[in-house]
Every structure is written in structure tokens, then in C-alpha cells.
Amino acid sequence: MLYILSGSDIYKYNLVGELQDSVYVPSGNDGIGISINQSDEIYTVHRYDTKIYKSNFENKTSETLFEDNQYHFPTGIAIDSNGNVYVSNKNHQIRKWDKLTQEKSDFGFDGALSLTIGPQGNLIAGIQSGSLAGRNARIIKIDLVGKLVETLFDQTKFDSLDYHIGVLGIGFNKMNELYFSIGRDAMQDGTDFSDENVLKDRVFRYTNNCAGTW
Q1: Rounded Cα distance, 75 and 183, in Å
Q2: What is the C-alpha to C-alpha distance for residues 26 and 28, in angstroms, rounded to an integer?
């Protein structure tokens, strides 16, 4: 199944593009990040919202899981195998919610725009460019105690990827191939980053240290 977060609704499609179901998330803000755990529970984070929501298609419910007033501009969410929640927090550190203790804490790594859990259970983070001129977005692997394991992708090594903003979406397929998108403003000159002017029209597949448009 394919799950799409749009506005305050989650839509479920089959793999031939047919809508199967939907569930409403009572945020009032546009959805910006989505993650699904092993029990098919769906976690979402919403623009300018300090709450994390958990939704379930089976019983058509959506509820607040927790709230964190340290979210400045949440952009992405990931759930590890223990049910701990990680939220990328633009221009600030990733935040972690511990399911067992209910504690919320800084996890490090400023500038993450997107998160997922990798094939080996590590946290994978897409990091925004340090500057418009730098074009130096990265994808990094972090272990679950907050230590950098390795850099998986470095934009500076690919002259053809002349994009400004950073890695806005990230995921793996069943072959453990890495797919990601890098955002850009329409004119590619750094003058207008309003929502309607940010393009997310390229998806890249990264395998064997090569990045190609998909």
C-alpha cells in the first residue's frame, strides 16, 4: 500500500493508484512528515504544530501521541523498532521521544529536513545545505545513541545536482536502494522560498556511489 499525507488527511492507495481509504488527522495544519510502524500505525507531524499524531485505518481513529514545545519547524518523522519517535526540527537539533520513559530530548544534528529508518535499523537523516552557494546537502547515517556512523551522500561530489534547499524526502526500497528528493526554488537563484515556489520535482536513486534522476 501507498500512504500519502495531504493537508490534514492520510490517504491509502493500492499500488495501481486506486484510493482505498482515508483518515482525518485533527491538526488544523498541513501534514509535512509521515512514518508507519510495524503494526501499521501511522505517525504524522504537521507544519507549525507541536503535537505528534498517531492514526489507525482499522478503527478510523487519530489521536495526539505527545506534544513537544521544542518543535520550531518540524519537517520529518521516523519510528525505530522500539517505538521511539525522532522528529527533524529545521535549523535545530533532531528531537527524540522515548516511548518507555516518555522523555523528550535533543538528539543532535542541526539542519535535518527528512528522516527515515535504514535497513540496519539506524536513523537516516537528510541534511539541508549550509548555504545557498554551498549546494552541500548530505544524507547521513546515525546510530540510535546519536553517533554519526557515516555519510551516505554528499551533494558536493555531484556537480549536476545544482539544487539549493536540501534533502526533503528520503526512503529505501526492498533492495535497500536509497531514493531521495532535493528541493529547489523555481528560479534556482535563492530569491523565493515560499511554499508555492519550492519545487520537489526530482527524485534520485543512489546506488554504488552514483546518483541518477528517477
Answers
A1: 13
A2: 6
Q: Which carries the bigger pLDDT value, residue 135 or residue 48? A: 48
pTM of the model: 0.86
Dump pLDDT digits (tens) for 57-116.
999 999 999 999 999 889 999 999 999 999 998 778 999 999 999 999 999 998 898 999
Q: d(Cα 206, Cα 214) in Å, to the nearest integer?
A: 10
Read off the C-alpha cell for 42.
Answer: 501511522
